[in-house]
Amino acid sequence: MLVLSRKEGQSLILNDNIEVMVVEIAKGQVRLGIRAPKDVLVLRKELTEEVADSNRLSAQTRDVEVLGSVIKKSHPEN
Amino acid sequence: MQKFKTLRFGLLEYSEDDVLYFPKGIPGFDDHKRWLLLGDDDEGNPIKWLQSLEDSDVALPVMPPEFIIPKYDPQLCEGDIKDLKAPLNELCFFVVVAVPENAPWEATANVRAPIVINIAERLGKQVIGQREDYGIRHYIFDDTTRENIKNAFLEAQRASGKGGAP
């Protein structure tokens, strides 16, 4: 992995069209600003694993029939 | 027609045209590329199921996000939309539901990462949107509704349960 040092207000350029700026450094946390084309997906890495965990949990759901009837009652206009 | 025996729905008959193809699987089930979307058109019940065709035990409960957030806008990245080979307004959205055992009022949905389906092409993908205010565990019901459902549910349990309560 490439490791670079940057100060507040300084940036990196990736692939000509993506800018990553160090906006603020405080209390063990770095705030980053990202400027990228619209088709570039920017995600916190842990989010993908959270989605996978959440799906595994949903696959074990038992009480969905109850939920269906509850939704029917609470959305009578549907 | 092909037959597939499932844990939740018993024996299913389906044709190849019914199969939804998820080229990258669904996170947590990355090897599961082929799924069926199941659900009766029971009026008022929006819950449907994605049944995996790779593992008969795996089915995910899903529902349309509009039941939870009326003007649902997950802000998908354009690259993800391109993968689905149709403009945004032709795509069909579902969110994955989780219901804690014995507490349906606490049900949540993953509004951050909808399952997006191109029905015509039978193509699907779970896409993580960019909206920071959309949670992976977003309550399906608001505070008041949760309280009401909880009370009604517990009341019904008491009524049908032990008559000899103190």
TrEMBL record, chain A:
Question: InterPro entries recorded for this chain?
Answer: CsrA (IPR003751), CsrA_sf (IPR036107)
What are the protein's UniProt keywords?
Bacterial flagellum biogenesis, Cytoplasm, Repressor, RNA-binding, Translation regulation
Q: What Pfam families is this protein classified in?
A: CsrA
**GO CC aspect terms:** cytosol
Q: Name one GO biological process term.
A: mRNA catabolic process
Q: Which residues form a coiled coil?
A: none
- Does the keyword Transferase belong to this entry? no
Q: Which domain of life is it from?
A: Bacteria
Mostly located where?
cytoplasm
The record's subcellular locations are: Cytoplasm
Which GO molecular-function terms appear in the entry? Answer: mRNA 5'-UTR binding
Identify the PANTHER family for this entry.
Answer: CARBON STORAGE REGULATOR (PTHR34984:SF1)
Report the HAMAP family cross-referenced here: CsrA (MF_00167)
Function in brief: A translational regulator that binds mRNA to regulate translation initiation and/or mRNA stability. Usually binds in the 5'-UTR at or near the Shine-Dalgarno sequence preventing ribosome-binding, thus repressing translation. Its main target seems to be the major flagellin gene, while its function is anatagonized by FliW.
Quaternary assembly = Homodimer; the beta-strands of each monomer intercalate to form a hydrophobic core, while the alpha-helices form wings that extend away from the core.
Q: Which family does it belong to?
A: Belongs to the CsrA/RsmA family.
Q: What is this protein called?
A: Translational regulator CsrA
- What is the species listed in this Swiss-Prot or TrEMBL entry? Acetomicrobium mobile (strain ATCC BAA-54 / DSM 13181 / JCM 12221 / NGA)
Q: What is the lineage of its organism?
A: Bacteria, Thermotogati, Synergistota, Synergistia, Synergistales
TrEMBL record, chain B:
Q: Does the keyword Chaperone apply?
A: yes
Q: Which InterPro entries match?
A: Flagellar_assembly_factor_FliW (IPR003775), Flagellar_assmbl_FliW_dom_sf (IPR024046)
Q: What keywords are annotated for this sequence in UniProt?
A: Bacterial flagellum biogenesis, Cell projection, Chaperone, Cilium, Cytoplasm, Flagellum, Translation regulation
Q: Where is this protein localized, as stated in its record?
A: Cytoplasm
**Pfam families assigned to the protein according to its UniProt record, in alphabetical order:** FliW
Stated family: Belongs to the FliW family.
What does the annotation say about its assembly with partners? Interacts with translational regulator CsrA and flagellin(s).
Recorded hits in PANTHER family, A to Z, give: FLAGELLAR ASSEMBLY FACTOR FLIW (PTHR39190:SF1)
Q: Which HAMAP family match?
A: FliW (MF_01185)
What is the recorded function of this protein according to its Swiss-Prot or TrEMBL entry? Acts as an anti-CsrA protein, binds CsrA and prevents it from repressing translation of its target genes, one of which is flagellin. Binds to flagellin and participates in the assembly of the flagellum.
**What is this protein's record name?**
Flagellar assembly factor FliW
Q: Which organism is it from?
A: Acetomicrobium flavidum
Task: Please name the gene that encodes this protein.
Answer: fliW
